[in-house]
Amino acid sequence: MFRIPFDRVNWITSSFLIGTALIALIGAPIYLFNYGIDWFQFGMFFFYLCATMMSITVGYHRLFSHLSFKAKAPVKFFTLMFGACAFENSALNWCSDHRRHHKHVDHDEDPYDISKGFFWAHIGWLLFKLDPETPVDNVGDLRKDKLVMWQHKYTHWIGLVVGLIIPAALGYGYNSLMGLDPMVGALGGFLIAGVTRIVIAQHCTFFINSLCHTVGKQPYSTKHSARDSAIMAFLTFGEGYHNYHHEFQHDYRNGVKPWQWDPSKWTIWTLSKIGLVEGLRRVPDSKILLAEMGEAKRRAVERIDQIKATHGYCQRTAEMLTQLSEKISANYHELEQAVADRVQLSREALQNWQNETRSLMREMSQLARLATA
Ligand SMILES: [Zn+2]
Ligand SMILES: [Zn+2]
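Above: inputs. Below: predicted complex with zinc ion.
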């Protein structure tokens, strides 16, 4: 029977997470019902939500955890300040957990291991401390960064001042200027751009650990539970292409295709054009395609095995399927060799390989239906 392990509850974190959620779910609607929302309050909420989420995705995640690009001090400062406003701990601690997540994904040492269940991966790992404290021993590079260490020391104070007191003060100031009740403005800033924004930003981040390991496709690898989903990308400022990310964690892009929704990638790219960041790391297209073709090859073999396990399958169709699967496999090995030999492959050549793999997989799907019909 399910039993809450009260002796293992992380009381401070739990009180904060539950308290802020209750304020956002009860306090904010009561405020909105009584006073409504003006463009200033809404603008502040929107700015704070984008600044906080971007600081987590661009700063905490892609810059500090994965070193996928290099940033000048203003970018580091901004993302550390607004990252603290998410109340997800300091960048140093966050990155330590996250690097451990990548190293031990889906296993016991993964702090938000999805194999322990959706609830655990989403929020349970924060509410309960089941294991002894893990040492913060995988962020030696970040310990050398003075800004990171300064933020580590004052993270909760920064979050409190920048994330809660400033929006309340701005709400107070705006209402005073407009001849409205300043306390109503202060309360609005605290509840909407402050607490409600924190709760939304936190759960959008937690979704990356829970839903992005549950919902979506696995076009690059099935060796881990991470998945790609456009809906999740929308909710997480581009982090929803998590299958790609776990396969190529040092790439500054998560949505690697031009049409994929990844505002964090667009921000990093734009910052590089104005000289605020540099050294953007990209995985070569040939390696990305090789991963996709490797998955296609695996799925083809799996499908044939399934058909052969079905009672009364059509022998002739199964043979045709095997031929298609062998073609996919041969293409894969040809590309694998080209990548190993560091052959410069043109965009057209890669496109042809991709198109051929897609049409072979389509043919397989059609034949597979006939084989078991
Ligand atoms: Zn993950
Ligand atoms: Zn990551």
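The pocket of zinc ion (ligand 2) is lined by residues 61, 65-66, 98, 102, 245, 249 (CB under 6 Å).
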